[in-house]
Amino acid sequence: MDSGTALSIIGVIISGAALMVSFLAFLRLLKLDRSGKFKELGEAIDKIEDARIEDKHKLVERISRLEGALTHIPTAEQLAALRRELHKAEAAIANVNARIEGFDDILRSHENRLSQIFEDALVKGRSQRGGA
């Protein structure tokens, strides 16, 4: 049973309990004398009924907020699809990292060659200046 259904059931139970209290209060009113207590009891019943209606509206509002929040929670299928995509992305990242590491050796080789060329050029330049 989802939370919306559970809250709906609780709301019905509260409404039913309030209705029973109202009915019992009404029966008690019928048994009382007419010395003005009817008016007081009628006001008490009205207060109870107003509180019941207010509680019902609060429950309806809470249920609608919960249902709205539940629509944003992904389903099991959506979560499984997200996991699959995540695994694909992780594999692609690992592949890119491996390729970068492969280029690292090539770049070091080129760097060593360029360093050797520059060193040779410097030595050659010094020897030409010194010999001239």
Task: Characterise the protein shown here.
- The protein is mainly alpha-helical and 132 residues long.
- It folds into two domains: 1-73; 74-132.
- Helix content is 90%, strand content 0%.
- Helix 1 runs antiparallel to helix 2.
- The chain is rod-shaped and about 130 Å long.
- Keywords: Membrane, Transmembrane, Transmembrane helix.
- It comes from Tepidicaulis marinus.
- The chain crosses the membrane at residues 6-30.
Quick structural gist:
This protein is an all-alpha fold. The chain is built from three helices and no strands. It comes from Tepidicaulis marinus.
Give the topology, please:
Blueprint: H1 3-31, H2 37-70, H3 76-131
Helix pairs in contact: 1-2
- State the end-to-end distance: 97 Å
Q: Tell me what portion of residues adopts beta-strand conformation.
A: under 5%
| Helix content range | over 70%
Oligomer state of the chains in this structure? single chain
Structural class, judged by helices and strands? mainly alpha
Radius of gyration: 41 Å
User: Would you identify the regions where 5 or more consecutive residues have pLDDT less than 50?
Assistant: none
Largest sheet: none
Q: In total, how many domains does the architecture comprise?
A: 2
Taken from the alpha-carbon principal axes, the silhouette is: rod-shaped
Compressed to H and E, one letter per element, the order equals: HHH
Question: How many distinct beta strands?
Answer: 0
The average pLDDT is 84
Please tally the helical runs, counting DSSP H or I stretches of 4 or more residues: 3
